[in-house]
Amino acid sequence: xxxxxxxxxxxxxxxxxxxxxxxxxxxxxxxxxxxxxxxxxxxxxxxxxxxxxxxxxxxxxxxxxxxxxxxxxxxxxxxxxxxxxxxxxxxxxxxxxxxxxxxxxxxxxxxxxxxxxxxxxxxxxxxxxxxxxxxxxxxxxxxxxxxxxxxxxxxxxxxxxxxxxxxxxxxxxxxxxxxxxxxxxxxxxxxxxxxxxxxxxxxxxxxxxxxxxxxxxxxxxxxxxxxxxxxxxxxxxxxxxxxxxxxxxx
Length: 250
Ligand SMILES: [Zn+2]
What we know:
Elements: E1 2-6, E2 9-12, E3 17-18, E4 39-42, E5 44-45, E6 48-49, E7 61-64, H1 67-70, E8 73-75, H2 87-90, E9 95-103, E10 106-110, E11 113-118, H3 120-127, E12 134-139, E13 157-158, H4 162-168, E14 173-176, H5 191-197, E15 208-211, E16 222-227, E17 237-239, E18 243-246, E19 248-249
Parallel strand pairs: 9-12, 11-13, 12-14, 14-15
Antiparallel strand pairs: 1-2, 2-19, 3-18, 4-7, 5-6, 8-15, 8-17, 9-16, 10-11, 16-18
Helix pairs in contact: 3-4, 4-5
The structure holds zinc ion.
Residues 68, 73, 75, 211, 237 line the site of zinc ion.
């Protein structure tokens, strides 16, 4: 189905790119923040069997996972506030104008360690004069992201003042293919998160950050319509499925 945005532009609802990483209970599932692999196990209680292959009537699995550590997820300011504000309450619209950009992180020395950083200037240059509500950042090299074991690897992160670039451009939703916008070991500062959500000085309930996306090589840089939805969890973060649709000109 073609959905018209303007008399001369549309999206084709059949041609969306799903940017989420599937959750699975094996070693191939990505992990970050030192969590073990997710568990998907049938309920087995009082002789009841929650697996057809084991003689049960239905498959009935318990799933244990961590949104931040295991899968594509979207979070709100509740990630860093004493009160756990809910992404399910704060994300209330689901279609956004979006731009996909691709960035080669810079290697910058930090206390004797070479960090991989996306700088504010790189963000600014890649965004250009586009006006969009959501920014989707693909980092290079774009390999192994569906099964990466990030814990203890000092993954790529964003220069803190990059958050100000997004605020200044009125970009409300940042989506990245990394475990975090901040450095893995930063002494608990989460500086980018704080600046982006203006916590504690002027908390912003509208902005979201989505992490652990998988943006395939077939997705070209450019402008899209983003459909961003989360599972309805009352929690600071929930699994999400960002789907983008190329804007076509008629
Ligand atoms: Zn997170």
